[in-house]
Amino acid sequence: MRPDLLLLDLDGLIRHWKDTGARQGERLAGLPHGALEAAYTLPEYKLAQLGVLTDQQWADAVREHLISQHGPAARTALPPWRADRGEIDQHMLALVRAARRHLPVAILSNTTSALPADLRLHGISGAFDAVFTSAELGVAKPAPAAYRAVAAAMNIQPGRMFFTDDEMIHVHGARHAGLPAEQFTSPAQFHATLIRLGLPLSSPARNAA
To answer: Domain of 30?
Structure first.
């Protein structure tokens, strides 16, 4: 049965991170390779994902952490890291646009308050019918409340929304909230899923990745 809403994760599906900015910043500041990975282990990161802190407050905490660990020169790593906002998969974006000709498409992402600006930067603010972030909702996947909050905001029953995410734990959370859901593995698999859901799209190429 065709759903009334297609609900997608963003990172790992449509936006991908190669961390080129982080590596550039580390080289510029003379930091060890991977030093900026600490940004995602700080408690401020989780707080920013839940909207307790802003994205900038998290970045400020990262700067202070790097300085405390590596000295004042470490602050020069921040601008390249912050300037890198990931890369958009144009194949997936085309599939989203094709799907939107038949049903609404929304995003549910565990991310900070930076996402609206990121979407504008990439020129895809209008590519989705709605965008929900954990920072805005105050709850993150895989908590069932996150998916139910989207259902309430869109005025659609959870069972009428189809969800996909590259992390299986988030798929399990969606299913617990009553959504049909499956793990994303590739654009070709996603394309085939759209056809299986009843969207009148052309069949994916045999060798699509």
So the answer is: 20-83
